Amino acid sequence: MAVLMDGTAAARTVKDEVLRRARALRERGTVPRLAVILAGDDPASEIYVKHKMRECGECGIDGTTHRLPGDIRQDELLALIAGLNADPEIHGILLQHPYPPHIDSFAVRCAISPVKDVDSLHPENAGLISHDRPRFLPGTPAGIMMLLDQYGVALSGKHCVIINRTHIVGKPLAQLMLARDATVTVCHSRTADLASFTRQADILICAAGRLRMISGAMVKPGAVVVDVGVNKKPDGKLAGDVCFEETEPVASYITPVPGGVGPMTRAVLLENTVRAAERAAP
Ligand code: NAP
Question: pTM to 2 decimals?
Answer without folding.
Answer: 0.97
